[in-house]
């Protein structure tokens, strides 16, 4: 055998052996996934359950919430679904029914509450409270038919009605996850939810401990709208980490990304009548604060539109939903979601 | 068909199948925004500076510095801030005696919001508000950096502390 051929074979063998060693080391290396995460208090609470009773974690709101003011959104007496199985079924229709792991995250005891704070305490109940903001922001509540075409603005005559149907129709599965998806153990920099999507597959959204216990229910609701834009629509973040939220940045408002949708929903929620039976002044204030936070931290290019620009969002929802060319110039490729920027 | 042709056909078919499987299996993971840290950002003089710190000084700080408009190549650095710098910044942020000043300046900044626009040759107009925004609280603080708005001494101190912490973060990682 010529020496050149022999040399090639031996190189090939060397590469093969090196590759096999690499695979072997990778397979047996104790990665983080094998190690218990000391910060997973919800997972630990589930593991430590006795006779099916779980000592659910307490709220740990990390942002400054003076006097725990947002905790009232989770109090059982302001949960319309608490005494209505029909309403709970309606809420399950948002993709929770198809979701995984809800069985041990409160399915059996979703009406329990903390006797001191009166807040419902299971992850499922707190997820219901997230969706409640989508459902009861509409005066029809759980009677709204979410099956109409999303283009039917005679039926969806407010943005809030349209968004409730949008979230239903664009979600396949919502999973419960007991983990805290943080940068490191004891880091407060944690992911709220994560969406997995792609062609030829059913999308799913995983909700983490931070979703249930670290943020209030209005924030949870806007997060759902955000994630759903990633899900069936597969609209991914287009920013290049050039804004404070890093990988969760969108390039600009008019790309119609997850942050734009989240802000649109918050604006619609904010612009409801003052005597709304479900949206109290505290909830409205929360929506305003979240809108401002996103406006100033989630886009590479600063957003020129403020809440006042969106005052008519519930009167003419179709104007805010349809995308149109920003400019009559055929060479301008930008598509605008209602207001250019 | 010769054996060679069959082999080639199988190879091509295998490659096509492999490519299709790749497309089918391709998934995108999109995490929602992270929470729990405090973010200071300043858009001023055609430049953006951002500093993210956690409540604990045992967690690393992250900082970013880029020209405006921010392009896709905006670079972030991560470092352990000097605990004294970290504590000084958070002390100013959570000093309740300062809240009325921060609140008043935020309200004044919202009213006076003014975009500075520029058009670069061949590009669309780019606009930004010269301001400092502090997020991670129940609602963001905003401090306009424009001559019409006179900030309180307390807000100015917070901004100065943020900028020196940012500088420390940026310089500390410069040599890495």
Give your account of this protein's structure.
The complex is a heterodimer of chains A (341) and B (176). Chain A has helices spanning 3-28, 41-47, 85-92, 103-107, 123-135, 159-169, 209-213, 217-230, 258-270, 281-295, 317-321; strands spanning 173-176, 181-182, 190-191, 193-197, 204-207, 323-325, 335-337. Chain A has one domain. In chain A, α5 packs across α8, α8 runs antiparallel to α9 (258-270) and α9 (258-270) packs antiparallel against α10 (281-295). Chain A has 341 residues and is mainly α. The model of chain A is unreliable at 30-37 (pLDDT under 50). Chain B is of the alpha+beta class. Chain B has a six-stranded antiparallel sheet. A two-stranded antiparallel ribbon of chain B has the order 7-8. In chain B, a hairpin with a 5-residue loop joins β9 and β10 (141-144). Chain B is elongated and about 85 Å long. At the A-B interface, β2, β3, β4, α8 and α10 of A face α1, β1, β2, β3 and β4 of B.
The shape of chain B, in one word, is elongated
Q: Please report the two chains with the greatest interface, counting residues with C-beta closer than 8 angstroms to the partner's C-beta.
A: A-B, 61 and 52 residues
Count of DSSP-assigned helices of chain A: 11
Low-confidence segments of chain B, ≥5 residues, pLDDT <50?
Answer: none
């Amino acid at each position: 055998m010529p020496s050149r051929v022999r040399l090639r074979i031996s190189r090939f063998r060397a590469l093969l052996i090196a590759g096999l060693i690499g695979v072997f080391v990778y397979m047996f290396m104790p990665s983080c996934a094998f190690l218990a995460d000391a910060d997973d208090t919800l997972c630990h609470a589930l593991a430590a359950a006795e006779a099916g009773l779980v000592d659910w974690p307490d709220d740990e709101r990390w942002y400054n919430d003076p006097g725990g003011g947002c905790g009232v959104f989770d109090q059982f007496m302001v949960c319309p679904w608490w005494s209505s199985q029909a309403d709970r079924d309606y809420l399950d229709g948002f993709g929770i029914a198809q979701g995984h792991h809800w069985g041990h995250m409160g399915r059996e005891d979703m009406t329990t509450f903390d006797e001191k704070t009166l807040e419902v305490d299971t992850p499922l109940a707190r997820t219901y409270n997230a969706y409640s903001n989508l459902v009861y922001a509409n005066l029809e509540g759980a009677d709204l038919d979410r099956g109409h075409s999303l283009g039917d603005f005679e039926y969806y005559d407010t943005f809030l009605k349209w968004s409730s149907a949008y979230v239903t129709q664009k979600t396949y599965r919502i999973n419960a996850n007991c983990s805290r998806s943080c940068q490191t153990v004891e880091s407060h920099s944690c992911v709220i939810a994560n969406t997995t999507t792609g062609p030829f597959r059913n999308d799913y959204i995983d909700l983490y401990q931070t979703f249930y216990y670290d943020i209030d229910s209005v924030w949870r609701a806007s997060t759902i709208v955000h994630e759903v834009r990633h899900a069936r629509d597969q609209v991914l973040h287009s920013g290049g980490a050039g804004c404070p939220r890093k990988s969760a940045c969108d390039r600009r408002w008019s790309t119609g990304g997850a942050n734009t949708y989240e802000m649109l929903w918050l604006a619609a929620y904010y612009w409801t009548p003052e005597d709304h039976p479900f949206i109290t002044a505290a909830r409205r204030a929360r929506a305003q604060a979240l809108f401002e936070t996103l406006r100033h931290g989630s886009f590479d290019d600063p957003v020129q539109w403020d809440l006042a620009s969106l005052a008519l969002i519930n009167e003419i929802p179709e104007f805010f939903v349809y995308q149109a060319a920003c400019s009559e110039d055929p060479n301008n490729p930008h598509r605008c979601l209602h207001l250019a920027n | 068909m010769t054996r060679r042709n069959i082999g080639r056909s199988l190879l091509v078919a295998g490659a096509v199948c492999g490519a299709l499987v790749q497309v089918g299996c391709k998934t995108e993971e999109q995490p929602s925004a992270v929470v729990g840290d405090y973010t200071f950002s300043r858009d001023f003089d055609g430049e953006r500076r951002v500093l993210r710190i956690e409540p604990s000084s045992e967690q690393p700080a992250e900082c970013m510095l880029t020209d405006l408009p921010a392009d896709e190549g905006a670079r972030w650095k991560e470092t352990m801030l000097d605990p004294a710098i970290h504590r000084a910044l958070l002390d100013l942020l959570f000093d309740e005696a300062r809240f009325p000043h921060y609140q008043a300046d935020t309200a004044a900044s919202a009213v006076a919001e003014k975009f500075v626009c520029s058009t670069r040759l061949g590009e669309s107009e780019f606009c930004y508000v010269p301001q400092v925004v502090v997020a991670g609280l129940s609602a963001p603080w905003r401090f306009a950096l424009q001559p019409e708005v006179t900030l309180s001494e307390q807000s100015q101190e917070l901004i100065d502390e943020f900028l020196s912490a940012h500088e420390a973060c940026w310089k500390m990682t410069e040599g890495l």
